[in-house]
């Protein structure tokens, strides 16, 4: 049997790393400049951390999308299917609750969901996640959304629009769900099987359906926004006012409901064109009440997560390339057997500050230069009997063709000086 990666998982090959790092370093820069601190929870938690938070009617539970296993101590553990629950568990457990508010935390790492794999939908994928805790002001929702928008724009995505909605407070959601049960209960025969199931468990989720028959029914329904109480409405308008002032483009989407049960009031998504059916780059919203549900004190919060692979897909569609990798400064070519150990030792010394590669067996001149060029090195350094006798290396600038000889001790200084100057001025 050939060994293969598990269905829905993938290897991240060296050529994929630079664009990933570009997104991650952009996120880190934008978020840290806004005082968002990095918190990394473990990859697995006690299962109840997730069952208590995501809600009994979420797809993760209903469709058995969690990777849950029993360990040798008969404990039920689960690979994280989202960050929020673990981050909030850590926030409570480590006493971050006493920090000055708002407490702003970000995380990055793998997420596991036993879903049906397709483009943009994997069983192991990666999220950048943010949680903003301790304040219920719409200013915090707006800051969260604006930072997300800034991260994705700074990565190079253009034409992004935030879809903003509100699911109201629990009593608004309850009233809306009751309305849906009444309206849709009478029209069950027109609904798909998934929507009939959702109607039973969490009627609001019917609005998420992409089924054409369902959509025809949904078009005749009132929306969550029609059920907002005055405070929830004022909050929703407050978020919009901040975003408008800051020039963050958004559209009010009156059918946004989120797949997890814990959301209150603000809910938002950012979608990208051209990456297929799974177009949501990011989802988020407010979740006042969740910290208390996990055993902490009543603490409001708002957060989001974007899927790294979906953002990468959108960046590739848009033709955004990773910044050029730094080229190796030097490729050392041993011209005889004795020089193999010599160039390896020199490489070790120079690597403190420079990228230095070498061949692992003796090479003739032509082959050595070719190898140095293929490695993308700026300089080739030759070492043979002639150079050994005089304690030097023969250098060739592969960009200009210039050749010179340098004593070993002067190499580091020379390379630094040359590489700091732009090519034109070193001619
Ligand atoms: P959610 O926690 O479901 O709101 O997901 C947040 C974001 O994670 C989504 O907007 C996607 O970008 C990404 N995401 C969710 N599920 C998957 C998956 N199965 N594969 C890849 N990315 C995903």
From TrEMBL:
Biological processes per GO annotation: histidyl-tRNA aminoacylation
Domain of life of the native organism: Bacteria
CDD domains in the record: HisRS-like_core
UniProt-annotated location(s): Cytoplasm
Alphabetical UniProt keywords: Aminoacyl-tRNA synthetase, ATP-binding, Cytoplasm, Ligase, Nucleotide-binding, Protein biosynthesis
InterPro entries cross-referenced by the UniProt entry: aa-tRNA-synth_II, aa-tRNA-synth_II/BPL/LPL, Anticodon-bd, Anticodon-bd_dom_sf, His-tRNA-ligase, HisRS-like_core, HisRS/HisZ
Name of the protein in question: Histidine--tRNA ligase
Gene name linked to the record: hisS
């Amino acid at each position: 049997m050939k060994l293969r990666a598990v269905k829905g998982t993938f290897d991240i090959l060296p050529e994929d790393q630079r664009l990933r790092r570009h997104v991650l370093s952009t996120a880190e820069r934008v978020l840290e400049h806004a005082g968002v601190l990095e918190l990394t929870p473990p990859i697995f938690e006690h299962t109840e951390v997730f069952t208590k938070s995501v809600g009994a009617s979420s797809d993760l539970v209903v469709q058995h999308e969690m990777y849950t296993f029993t360990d040798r101590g008969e404990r039920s553990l689960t690979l994280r299917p989202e960050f929020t629950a673990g981050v909030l568990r850590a926030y409570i457990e480590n006493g971050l609750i006493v920090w000055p508010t708002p407490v702003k935390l970000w995380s990055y790492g793998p997420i596991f969901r036993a879903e049906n794999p397709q483009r943009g939908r994997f069983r192991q994928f990666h999220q950048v996640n943010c949680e903003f805790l301790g304040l219920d002001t719409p200013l915090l929702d707006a800051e969260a959304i604006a930072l997300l928008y800034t991260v994705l724009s700074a990565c190079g995505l253009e034409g992004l629009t935030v879809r903003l909605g509100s699911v109201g407070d629990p009593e608004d959601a309850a009233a809306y769900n009751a309305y849906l049960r009444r309206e849709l209960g009478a029209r069950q025969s027109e609904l798909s099987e998934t929507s009939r199931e959702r109607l039973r468990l969490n009627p609001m989720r019917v609005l998420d359906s992409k089924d054409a028959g369902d959509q025809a029914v949904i078009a005749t329904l009132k929306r969550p926004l029609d059920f907002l109480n005055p405070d929830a409405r004022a909050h929703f308008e407050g978020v919009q006012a901040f975003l408008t002032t800051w020039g963050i483009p958004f559209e009010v989407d009156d059918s946004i409901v989120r797949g997890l049960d814990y959301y209150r009031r603000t809910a938002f998504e950012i979608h990208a064109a051209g990456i297929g059916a799974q177009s949501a780059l990011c989802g988020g919203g407010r979740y006042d009440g969740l910290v208390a549900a996990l055993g902490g004190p009543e603490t409001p919060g708002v957060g989001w997560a974007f899927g790294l692979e979906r953002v990468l897909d959108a960046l590739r569609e848009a033709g955004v390339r990773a910044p050029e990798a730094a080229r190796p400064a030097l490729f050392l070519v041993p011209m005889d057997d004795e020089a193999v150990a010599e160039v390896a030792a020199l490489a070790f010394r120079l690597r403190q500050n420079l990228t230095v590669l070498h061949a692992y067996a003796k090479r003739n001149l032509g082959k050595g230069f070719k190898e140095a060029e293929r490695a993308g090195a700026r300089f080739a350094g030759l070492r043979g009997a002639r150079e050994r006798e005089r304690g030097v290396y023969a250098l060739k600038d592969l960009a200009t063709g210039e050749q010179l000889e340098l004593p070993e001790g002067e190499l580091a200084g020379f390379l630094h000086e040359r590489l700091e100057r732009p090519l034109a001025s070193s001619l």
